[in-house]
Design brief:
The chain is of the alpha+beta class. It binds glutamic acid.
């Protein structure tokens, strides 16, 4: 793999990095509060010979909400659209990612989309396998295929830290169990979900995932299809409509690419037929998006004409 330092990119990173000072690392998951808020890293994967990076690119981070894209791919491949969308909707929400409000007011009580926590818990509940270990292993196998990196696993410390404090996610899951959206043991579901969220990688791995999604599910080296075309399209559409929390509309206007962020400060971008982007900067804005990461994408979008609209 020919990763090169991007000179232009390094200047944009320098410009965007000042914004990290105005953000705040997530602390509702205690382990995430230990992140260094000054980090900013970006990787652009444009095929095996054209990969550019800048900033603290070796830094590893947990995927958090970005993992929701991957679990959705897996269950859609396992069960198909009809089953999956009988449990979770397709509509964006203006509410925060961890809100319980719409679960109570919507009839039937199914989560609005798979990118908010309630929807993601319903999706994780559908991952096939007879044990939590087997389910996680199947998800990790998909991650290995998408990144070409078999060493990727989950960060146990972060997973435990979230599991011990996931009161809100527990509430969402129990609420959905009452309404028949999820089934089985809720503690086991939380265990799998927090491990899924704690899958750890660097921005180069993340950019490669973006590239596969951008290229309709095909591996950049072998051209073999990892994700069926229609599933790659579904997840990219969710990334556009719901990927950046309740700032997805503004992000679509200012940047205009399918993207998914996580409270660890990661952002996955997939520019159809062009490139995959991986960004990491843990200082967040009030909606939970990486502040410097978004600023960097805004500058990049203008400079490289990234918007798909
Ligand atoms: N594990 C996190 C949670 O469920 C993920 C949230 C996020 O990244 O938006 O709270």
């Amino acid at each position: 793999m020919a990763w090169k330092q991007g000179v232009d990119l390094a200047n944009m990173v320098k410009e965007a990095k000042v914004w990290a000072k105005s953000g705040k690392v997530a602390d509702y998951i205690p382990a995430l509060a230990e992140a260094n808020p000054d980090m900013l890293a970006v990787a652009i994967y444009q095929g095996t010979d054209h990969c550019f990076l800048a900033g603290n690119v070796e830094e590893k981070f947990t995927l958090q909400s970005i993992s929701k894209v991957l679990s959705l791919v897996l269950v859609l491949m396992d069960l198909g659209e009809d089953v999956v969308f009988s449990k979770v909707g397709m509509e964006p929400t203006g509410d925060p990612f961890n809100s319980i409000a719409k679960l109570e007011t919507n009839k039937p009580s199914k989560p609005l989309n798979p990118m908010i926590n309630a929807g993601a818990l319903a999706v994780t509940n559908m991952i096939q396998g007879s044990t939590t270990e087997e389910r996680l292993h199947r998800l990790l196998r998909l991650v290995h295929q998408l990144t070409g990196n078999e060493k990727i696993t989950f960060n146990e410390y972060v997973a435990n830290s979230e599991l011990e404090t996931a009161y809100l996610n527990r509430s969402l899951a129990y609420f959905m169990k009452q309404h028949g959206v999820v089934e089985g043991d809720i503690e086991e579901l939380l265990d799998l979900y927090t491990k899924q969220c704690a899958i750890e990688m660097n921005c180069m791995d993340l950019a490669r995932i973006g590239y596969v999604l951008a290229h309709e599910g095909c591996d950049p080296i072998t051209a073999k299809r990892i994700i069926p075309l229609h599933i790659a399209r579904i997840v990219k559409t969710f990334m556009v409509t719901c990927g950046m929390y309740n700032a997805s509309g503004e992000f679509a206007i200012r940047v205009g690419i399918p993207a998914k962020s996580g409270v660890s400060g990661g952002i996955l971008g997939a520019i159809p037929h062009r490139s995959g982007i991986g960004i990491y900067s843990p200082a967040l804005d009030e909606k939970g998006n990486s502040l410097a990461g978004i600023k960097l994408l805004e500058v990049m979008a203008e400079r490289y004409q990234l918007s798909i609209f």
